[in-house]
Amino acid sequence: MTETSSSNLTQVTYHRIYMDSQGDSHFDVVTVKQSLSQAAPPAAPFYVSEDGPATKYRFYTFDSGWIGELHPAPTRQFLILMSGAVEMETTDGTVRRFMPGDLVLLEDTSGKGHVTRNIGDGFCTYFVVPVPSV
Fold first, then answer.
1. Which CATH number goes with the domain that contains 57?
2. Rounded CA gap, 16 and 105, in Å?
3. 79-127 pLDDT, tens per residue?
């Protein structure tokens, strides 16, 4: 989701799953601000956020009906859903549905983790970017 504000800033939001000190997982929404920049001259200015660290990528594809029972994330990673429909559930009982274009940052790399379900009729595919811990 992207919103344009009156102060010439664009905001990009994404979902995040994190772990608390008891090992339970929860959802949060993160907002990243962008500013108008001449980032790729001679192209016209466009909105750009600050850089974040990333060095590799991968793809995850889940078969129809696939369920990833309660598990921590294998690494801190951004998931961008490319196709299909997914439902994620945290240990506090919150369930969110994600569709193509949705972005999730998984930070629950220990503790109880979360549940992921492919709720679509076919395969779902994620573009995955592992990111270093902060």
1. 2.60.120.10
2. 5
3. 999 999 999 999 999 999 999 999 999 999 999 999 999 999 999 999 9
